[in-house]
Structure formats: structure tokens, C-alpha cells
Amino acid sequence: MQTIEEEELCFPQLLNSSCRKTKQLPSVSTLVCIILSTISVLTVTLNLMVIISISHLKQLHTSTNLLLLSLAVSDFFVGFLVVFQILLIDGCWYLGDLMCVLYNIVDYVITSASVETMVLISVDCYVAICNPLHYLTKVTPKRVRIGVALCWMFSFLFVFIVMKENLKQPGRHNACSGECVVVFDEVAGLVDILFFFISPVSVIVVLYVRVFVVAVSQTRAMRSHVAAATLRGLVRVTVKRSELKSARTLGVIIVAFLIGLCPYLFLTITGQETIVSASSAVYVLFYFNSCLNPMMYLLFYPWFRKCVKLIVSLQILKRDSCEVNVA
Known about the structure:
By secondary structure, this protein is mainly alpha-helical. It has a single domain, classed as Rhopdopsin 7-helix transmembrane proteins, CATH 1.20.1070. The longest helix is centred in the middle third of the chain and has 46 residues. It is globular, with a radius of gyration of 24 Å. About 5% of the residues have low confidence.
């Protein structure tokens, strides 16, 4: 029988080199497992619906929706990464050193591509609201496809370069067996922070603030015009609230994104290279944003609600279903 000391180790057979498990109450572990499992299932399911909807329906093949498709793909894979957090509830990594490095590579690629896609979405919204007359000529589906492809390619290339030393000798930075730590040099870390976090977040915030200001000013101008027309006895018209509604929608999405990203950004900037389990709460908060994105689509986009009905009712399997009007 195992002694109490052996039961507290990740690998009892390695008494001298094994890490210790994180002590948690059984009820807490069960609750965390249920929460993470729910997040994983919802993230995979909802984002898969977004992917199917935009890919299948020709009407949705717009520039903006192609960006949402890229974001949904990254969020879809995030749903699977949450499974690894479930395995780390006791603070031990059981999948080996090589799998640890591969997990971190996938994690970094998805995170970087997601951040860069959010930048493209903010640029798309900025041009659509602040320069609508030139939107169709400046933001074309072909340019969007090229931008999305470059985002994913650049993310993969950069992450592979900074992780190559960890691939050569997986686990060399682990203090004990059952730990999962990857480390890259200071230059790569600085580039990662500047080009994948600080700069993108700054661009996103500046553009969305500009979008919100322009949308509000346009709405106020429209209201003033309608009020003046009504006083003169002209035909009554209804004020269009699309600009303000769009600004509010974008505001909610970006706030949720920043709430999920900032703790992870803080952890990276401060250089807290600890075992994965010690920072799992930060990662889970970032991952949860991937579940929130399609939920916000359900709340704000009628076309997505119609697509969900088509998918659930299996009408999307019918012939010529790609021509269905969901506008």
C-alpha cells in the first residue's frame, strides 16, 4: 500500500524527483471539473455551429463573416485545450515532456492568431463605420482571406522559432517530474509581448474608441435632423439606431476580450514562469472568452440564431440549403 507521502506525489514511483500534487478538497475538484467540462463542450459546440454556418451558407460569405470564421476556428480549438486544464486539476502533468511542448505550441499559435484576428475585426469595423463609402473597395473578401492566412502563418512561424529549443530537449526546464514548463530567451519574450499583446491591444482599443465616438456622433446628428424635420411638419421618419447598436455590440465584445486577455498578458509581462497548474485560473479565464464569443453572436446577430435553427433541425442537410436566406 502507498504511504500518505507517496499519495501526494504525481509519480509515486519517482520518490526523489516527482512533483507534489496540489492539495484540494474532493468537492472543489469535482466542481472545477464540471465547470471546465461545461465550458469545453459549449465552446466546441457553439463555435462549430459558427464554422458550419459561415462556411455552408453563401449569403454569409462576406468580409466581416470571414473574420468571424477565423476567430471561430481558433475558439473551436480552444475548447479542446480546456480538456488539458481538466487533467491539471491536481497540478500534475501526466502526458510527457514532448506533449507539454506541443501543447504550449498549439496554445501560443491559437492565442496569437486570435489576437491578430481581433485586430483585423477592429480594422474592418473602423472602415465600415468611419469610412463607409470606401468599405467595399478597401475591404474585399480576397484581401480578408490573405490577411487571415498571413495571421495564422506568421503565428505558427514565430511560435515554432521561439519554441525550437524546447523541442530539441523537452522538459529541460522542469524542476521535477510532473511539471510542464517552457522557456524562451529574453529577445523572443520581448517580441512576443510587444507584437502579439501590447501593440494589438493598443490598436484594438484606439480603433474601437474611434468607432464608438463616430457612431454616437452620427446617431446624434440623425436625431437632430429628425427633430428639425418633425418641427417643420415634414414626413415623420424613424431614427435608425444601427450605428449606435453596432458600437455597443463591438464595445461588449472588446471588453469581454480584454477581460480575458489582460490577466494572461500580466502573467507574461511579469515573467512568472511557473508550473501550468499554478496559472491555470488565468488560462481558463482567457479560454472562457472563446465560449462567450458565439454566445454574443446568439444575442446580437439574428442570422446566427436562424442558422442554429437550421443546424439543429437538420435542414442544413437538405439540397440547396446553402442558398437559404438568413438575413
